[in-house]
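Example with several molecule types.
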Amino acid sequence: AQSVTQLGSHVSVSEGALVLLRCNYSSSVPPYLFWYVQYPNQGLQLLLKYTSAATLVKGINGFEAEFKKSETSFHLTKPSAHMSDAAEYFCAVSDQGFSGGYNKLIFGAGTRLAVHP
Amino acid sequence: DTAVSQTPKYLVTQMGNDKSIKCEQNLGHDTMYWYKQDSKKFLKIMFSYNNKELIINETVPNRFSPKSPDKAHLNLHINSLELGDSAVYFCASSQGGGFMNTEAFFGQGTRLTVV
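Resulting structure tokens for the full complex:
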């Protein structure tokens, strides 16, 4: 069964500092992986996704993530944090990956990113 | 234009009541979902419909009954509400059941509080 573990429920960085949010996955099939962001009192917005093309995936707002099969990781990074990046970030895996069919997203517990001046 | 819209945004009700949450998407997608986000922000799928047909039904109490009158709408009816039902419920939609060439778009959520 697929699962996602996000290390660190809270991450705090200074404005301008590197953002690193960790995600490890478990999947019995080659996975599709996603990062979503949730701003306060809002729905989830897709940041980026990995679907077997390039292992380094670039998303919106300057975020990127690298798929590392050997480490079963899909960590999210941004070189320089901005105050507007403060939000909840969710890593997710699609339960059937490449095998197709009707999939559901399995989410990690989320990481709250705080950005301070 | 809101792609996935849910109503109401907030819902406060007493235990034992029956309530409904409505969801509509204007993206032309054929697959819709309900997710529940608990107080610890954990998100878990409840149901998924494809072209009005139920395709995913997780272990959810049968007090929860989804209804899809057409592929643009997926409503959630909850009977005999309990305190533990308090959560944020998110509706989402995607084109097709797989995620290779599509993504799931989420609504703003409905914060349900049972008192």
